[in-house]
């Protein structure tokens, strides 16, 4: 145990006492925000897209410019009305203007409405513009047909509709589209955190074991410790580093929820709760031990990091499949597939985390899932220590996966 | 005392070690000698309990090696390796700590060794900055800093310049004088000859010779002459009373046939070579190996047991 503790301390220091680790720990939450929330946020918010630049409008149809301006300003996009098409196009080209809208005389029945853009792909901007002009065109046509626009508006108005979530105690909770989006973002962020850290730490362990071989330190180590101590020392050392990183992230998240949110009256998503953060930690630990034992074994069997990459692709697959299907799991968290994958050990941590976040899986499924992963961790660790023992001394031979599995039987 | 009895290790189809037995005693330097691939490293790894023998026993003072006994052993593997990003001092402290040494004691011992090898300035430098020779000295310190009672050095001199080799030789002799059992392997017979008390000569996993060096030489001692000269000595091997010759451009070792005298050779070469040194000697280990095995130790054994499994 004393030797194990020494290796753990050494590996922890090697992992945590470097710039990359500190930077990742500090920037991690921002990175995750950047890859999950921001793109959707930007896509739904034309103001963010126009980046404070005005949209130029030139209209030959009375009222169209005003309707556009009112709607744009409601979205936070600045507007300038112009009669000089050449200057307006130039402004679009040099980037000082986010777009240029032209409504020709006779529109909507004879003339055209045009949206000039520099890229041609700023879909959010031109989709909003099309919607605004479409609504305005309908009003014009209704007016032209001699019908009172207010009457039509009344007829076409949305009928009331509500979604209620029934909580475990029978309490009812109103859900809106925003609630769904929020749950989607939070789940997506949590799943991304879990996926990235498990993959990162798994690969770190694998690379660290390969380095032990390529730098030839392994024999010196084995002259003092057993291969099992060496392997678990590495896993626990890096695990400790991972725990530290999660500790920082979860503290930041909790501070956001408990202190910063109320203090500045910010609406912090309700799904970032201590309970959900706790589940994130539980599934991280389970997934970490499962994947890092596997990576340690494959690292020991590899000739170099390239070879490790080749051997590790099946592991990667188990992590990527749930990630690809994440939106379908979020939308139907209790489907047969989601339930099955939330119990199958290799995919359970990611899939069960999603289910816990967006739904309320039965306690027995939760227990079965955690139990199955835990049992697999034990099994994987035993398997890995056997592979590790044979593999760590093997050089000059690029073993295939099947061959590696046979080492388990080596006395 | 280290006692190895009838150890056997087979890798797939290659029998790397085939029934070796020997003992190494406290306060002696024991040489495990043989060409590359003879099974030396495999034997040392089995002693170190890094790999398990298929059969046979290895005992320390009559007991099988347990994990806790590893603290009593120092090991310099053939393939040297230290964590490249770590500092020299830290690396050595880590290795000593794994052997159970307390930090202050370890520091004192490590500092003394660094001082001795003249690399004390490198304590705070990274391992990756060390030259190959310095790296080997650091590795050597890693094997001895925890004051083991047995040290196993696998090819300790390979890749070292002559000055560094002498420093290491002196350190090994000092360890022996302190009562440490020093076991080292080499394929360079000269090294063995300089410092070994007793040797085990192995080839293809089997014993060729075993015993005190002096006795071995006496047992296999026949008439041999070492000659240093200027000129072409190619004719010597054709002389009727010459058994075998180990030849270098300006140095040869000649083994004479039984019943022949060294002055016959002296008369034969006088006038044909400019002789600078002429010495009747017991044959070198190299010579003995060549005679017993039928080829030079530098040729290796070609079996390649050490290739697939680094063993």
Q: Top keywords for this entry?
A:
heterodimer, A: about 400 residues, alpha/beta, D-Maltodextrin-Binding Protein, domain 2, 2 domains, two-stranded antiparallel sheet, about 70% helix, elongated, B: about 300 residues, Rossmann fold, Alpha-Beta Plaits, four-stranded antiparallel sheet, about 30% helix, about 30% strand, globular
Helix content of chain B: 25-40%
Uncertain runs of chain B:
302-311
Provide the CATH top-level class of the largest domain in chain B.
Answer: Alpha Beta
Number of strands of chain B: 14
Strand content of chain B: 25-35%
CATH fold assignment of the largest domain in chain B: Rossmann fold
User: Helices and strands of chain B: which structural class?
Assistant: alpha/beta
> Looking at this structure, what is the CATH superfamily of the largest domain in chain B?
P-loop containing nucleotide triphosphate hydrolases
Strands of the widest sheet of chain A, in order across it, are: 2-1-3-4
Structure description:
- The complex is a heterodimer of chains A (411) and B (311).
- With 411 residues, chain A is an alpha/beta fold.
- Chain A folds into 2 domains: 2-41 and 176-409, no CATH class; 46-161, D-Maltodextrin-Binding Protein, domain 2.
- Chain A has 18 helices and 6 strands.
- Chain A has helices at 2-16, 19-43, 46-50, 64-75, 85-93, 123-144, 149-156, 177-214, 217-222, 227-264, 274-301, 305-311, 313-324, 326-331, 336-341, 348-358, 363-391, 401-406, and strands spanning 55-59, 79-81, 99-103, 113-116, 163-166, 172-175.
- Chain A has a 4-stranded mixed β-sheet with strand order 2-1-3-4, with helices on both faces.
- In chain A, helix 10 packs antiparallel against helix 11.
- Chain A starts with a helix and ends in a 5-residue tail after the last helix.
- Chain B has 311 residues and is of the alpha/beta class.
- Chain B has 2 domains: 2-217, 3-Layer(aba) Sandwich (Rossmann fold), CATH 3.40.50.300; 222-281, Alpha-Beta Plaits (2-Layer Sandwich), CATH 3.30.70.100.
- Helix content of chain B is 31%, strand content 29%.
- Chain B has helices at residues 40-47, 88-98, 103-116, 132-144, 162-177, 189-195, 213-219, 262-269, 285-293, 305-308, and strands spanning 2-11, 14-24, 29-33, 55-60, 63-64, 73-76, 150-154, 181-186, 198-203, 206-212, 224-230, 242-248, 251-256, 274-281.
- Chain B has a 6-stranded mixed β-sheet, sandwiched between helices.
- In chain B, a hairpin with a 2-residue loop joins strand 12 (242-248) and strand 13.
- The two termini of chain B are 24 Å apart.
- Mean pLDDT of chain B is 85; it is low at 302-311.
- Classes of the chains: A alpha/beta (411), B alpha/beta (311).
- The A-B interface holds A 2-3, 6-7, 10, 14, 215-226, 393-397, 411 and B 45, 48, 50-52, 67, 70-71, 73, 75, 77, 79-86, 94-95, 97-100, 139, 142, 307-311.
């Amino acid at each position: 145990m004393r030797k194990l503790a020494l290796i753990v301390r050494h590996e922890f220091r090697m992992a945590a006492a470097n710039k990359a680790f500190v930077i990742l720990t500090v920037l991690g939450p921002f990175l995750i925000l950047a890859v999950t929330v921001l793109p959707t946020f930007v896509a739904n918010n034309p103001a963010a897209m126009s980046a404070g630049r005005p949209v130029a409008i030139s209209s030959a149809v009375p009222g169209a410019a005003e309707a556009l301006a009112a709607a744009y300003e409601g979205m936070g996009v600045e507007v300038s009305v112009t009669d000089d098409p050449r200057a307006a196009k130039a402004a679009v080209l040099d980037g000082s203007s986010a777009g240029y809208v032209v409504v020709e005389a006779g529109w909507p029945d004879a003339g055209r409405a045009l949206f000039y853009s520099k890229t041609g792909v700023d879909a959010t901007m031109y989709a909003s513009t099309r919607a605004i002009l479409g609504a305005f065109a309908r009003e014009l046509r209704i007016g032209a047909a001699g019908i009172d626009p207010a009457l039509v508006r009344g007829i076409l108005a949305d009928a009331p509709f509500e979604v209620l979530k029934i909580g475990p105690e029978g309490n009812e909770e109103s859900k809106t589209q925003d609630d769904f989006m929020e749950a989607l973002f939070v789940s997506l962020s949590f799943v991304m955190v879990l996926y990235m850290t498990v993959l990162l730490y798994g690969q770190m362990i694998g690379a660290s074991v390969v380095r032990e071989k390529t730098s030839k330190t392994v024999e010196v180590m084995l002259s003092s410790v057993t291969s099992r101590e060496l392997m678990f020392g590495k896993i626990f050392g890096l695990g400790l580093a991972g725990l530290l990183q999660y500790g920082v992230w979860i503290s930041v998240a909790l501070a956001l929820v408990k202190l910063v949110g109320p203090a500045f009256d910010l609406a912090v998503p309700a799904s970032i709760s201590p309970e959900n953060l706790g589940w994130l930690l539980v599934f991280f630990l389970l997934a970490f031990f499962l994947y890092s034992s596997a990576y340690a074994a494959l690292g020991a069997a590899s000739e170099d990091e390239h070879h490790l990459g080749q051997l590790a692709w099946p592991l990667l697959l188990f992590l990527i499949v749930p990630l690809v299907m994440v939106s379908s799991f979020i939308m139907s968290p209790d489907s047969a597939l989601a339930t099955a994958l939330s119990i199958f050990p290799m995919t359970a941590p990611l899939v069960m985390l999603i289910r816990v976040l967006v739904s309320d899986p039965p306690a027995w499924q939760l227990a079965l899932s955690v139990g199955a992963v835990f049992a697999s961790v034990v099994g994987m660790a035993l398997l890995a220590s056997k592979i590790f023992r044979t593999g760590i001394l093997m050089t000059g031979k690029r073993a295939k996966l099947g061959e590696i599995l046979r080492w388990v039987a080596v006395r | 005392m280290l006692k190895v009895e009838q150890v056997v290790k087979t890798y797939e189809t290659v029998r790397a070690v085939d029934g070796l037995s020997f003992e190494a005693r406290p306060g002696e330097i024991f040489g495990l000698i043989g060409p590359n691939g003879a099974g030396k490293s495999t034997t040392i790894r089995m002693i170190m309990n890094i790999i398990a023998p298929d059969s046979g026993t290895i005992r320390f003072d009559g007991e099988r090696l347990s994990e806790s006994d590893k603290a009593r052993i120092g090991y310099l593997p053939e393939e040297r390796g230290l964590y490249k990003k770590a500092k020299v001092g830290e690396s050595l402290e880590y290795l000593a700590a794994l052997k159970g040494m307390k930090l202050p004691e370890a520091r004192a011992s490590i500092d003394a060794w660094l001082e001795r090898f003249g690399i004390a300035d490198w304590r705070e430098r990274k391992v990756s900055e060390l030259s190959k020779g310095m790296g080997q000295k650091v590795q050597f310190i890693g094997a001895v800093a925890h004051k083991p009672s047995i040290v196993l050095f696998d090819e300790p001199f390979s890749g070292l310049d002559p000055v560094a080799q002498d420093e290491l030789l002196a350190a090994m002799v000092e360890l022996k004088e302190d009562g440490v059992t020093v076991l080292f392997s080499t394929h360079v017979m000269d090294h063995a000859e300089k410092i070994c008390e007793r040797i085990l000569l192995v080839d293809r996993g089997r014993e060729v010779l075993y015993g005190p060096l002096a006795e071995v030489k006496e047992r296999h001692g026949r008439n041999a002459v070492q000659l240093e000269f200027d000129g072409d000595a190619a004719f010597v091997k054709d002389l009727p009373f010459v058994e075998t010759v180990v030849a270098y451009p300006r140095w040869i070792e000649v083994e004479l046939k039984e019943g022949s005298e060294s002055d016959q050779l002296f008369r034969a070469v006088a006038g044909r070579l400019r002789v600078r040194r002429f010495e009747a000697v017991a044959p070198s280990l190299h010579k003995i190996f060549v005679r017993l095995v039928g080829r030079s130790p530098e040729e290796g054994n070609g079996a390649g047991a050490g290739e697939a499994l680094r063993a």
